Amino acid sequence: MGKYFGTDGFRGEANKNLTAEHAFRIGRFLGSYLTKKKGEKAKIVIGKDTRRSGYMFEYALSAGLVSSGADAYLLHVTTTPSVAFVTRTEGFDAGVMISASHNPFYDNGIKLFNEHGEKMDEETIEKIEAELDKIPMDGGEYQPPPYATGERIGRTVDYVAGRNRYVGYLISLGVYSFKGIKVGLDCANGSAWEIAKTVFDSLGAKTYVTGAEPDGTNVNKGVGSTHIENLQSFVLEKGLDVGFAYDGDADRCLCVDEKGQIVDGDQILYLYGRYLYERGKLRHNTVVTTVMSNFGLYKAFDEIGISYEKTPVGDKYVYERMANGGFSLGGEKSGHIIFSKYATTGDGILTSLKIMQAMIDRKSALSQLVAPMKAYPQVLKNVRVTDKSKTRADKDVCAVIERVAKSLGDSGRVLVRESGTEPVIRVMVEGENEPLCQRFVEEIVSVIQEKGYVSL
To answer: From the candidates 67, 101, 225, 334, which is the catalytic residue?
Structure first.
């Protein structure tokens, strides 16, 4: 991870550590760099979620791009996977998504995609970081990207048609009619608020929607995949067959079954991995997971005969492993699920459609499809800290982690890691006994607090 860009782009609080000037300079560099690389005007497509600061960043990015000679195409409010889709299918040189995903409204972020709709390569990210710090890449004196003049100045183009083509693509992936099925959608007051309902209505579902009244300040507020309890209540109250919860930019999906029980990313990987395996369509008989996946997932895969691989946390790493190994399914416990046949990034709405396909094809309720996987108790606590690296490297913090790991032995595990998107240390303990896991988590957090790393 760099100074500005983490595992999922440049993220921070709007106009504090992520400003309109940052956006302008990123746009100015990208426009100049890609236009020079291409030998003609570069075309960059931009999407945003529903955060109030999204307009500011959209216009700042556009100004930077066109001032350096590139054309900016605006999808307006849309999902992260739609930006990746449009970038790779419609000949764009790069894609930009303005979103802080599951974070609160006052945060925002800038996610970059290459021409293939994949997360931007590290070499280009390093060049952008050097530009933000005004560090010359060739060792000479720093020179800002040149401004375009005359007819070389770029333009902005309203491109909502691109978003509509993405919606059409999702509808085309509906293998079965959803007629007669009552589906709940929690759109997190985010970018899925219009798209998801359109897709499910088009496929014939009886669609019930919550979290679909964005006002610029309520994205993820008490709704969406980070507040799954909202959808649990909604499903039970309405007597629904299934519910799907997205985050602010709809690149992740968590589910609620007909009994109001949560179905997380690991359970989704289990049910769809098994679905593909039983049909001989699971490439290389392998599912790609991250180190945060539950022991119960691996035990369930072992019983079936499905292999698995583990990557660091981040759908970027999951996709890289999938692409390199030619795998068809991968994802995270948090709900980033990647179907490589259809997408280059996590796509919450696509995930919903694939779960619906498995339910209808198997003629089974969601609770039945995930029942064979028995998850181990897992306790996770996020601790906001003043310095992630110093906290994780502290000798006393390391000592308590080692002590907990020794106590757990082969019956569990402890994982303490730096968030790639927030000033947060994530403390996770997994084992056979939830109260014990809770106790161990608190022991580690207490040491972090005692050492003065907690950010107030």
So the answer is: 101
- Structure-derived torsion over alpha carbons of residues 81, 82, 86, 88, reported in degrees to the nearest 10: 10
CA atoms of 57 and 43, how far apart (whole Å): 18
Query: For residues 143-168, b (16+ Cβ closer than 10 Å) or e, as one string?
Result: eebeebeeeeebebeebeebbeebbe
What's the pTM?
Answer: 0.90
Helix or strand (DSSP H, E) at 207: strand 206-210
Cross-strand partners of 208: 184
| Residue 1: pLDDT band with limits 50, 70, 90 | low
Categorise residue 348: left if φ over 0, alpha if ψ from -120 to 50, beta otherwise: alpha
Distance of CA 37 to the CA centre of its chain: 29
Instruction: Find residue 184's DSSP bridge partners.
Output: 208, 243
101 is catalytic: yes
C-alpha distance from residue 354 to each of 7, 111, 386, 452 (Å):
26, 25, 41, 46
Contact 279/272 with Cβ under 8 angstroms?
Answer: no
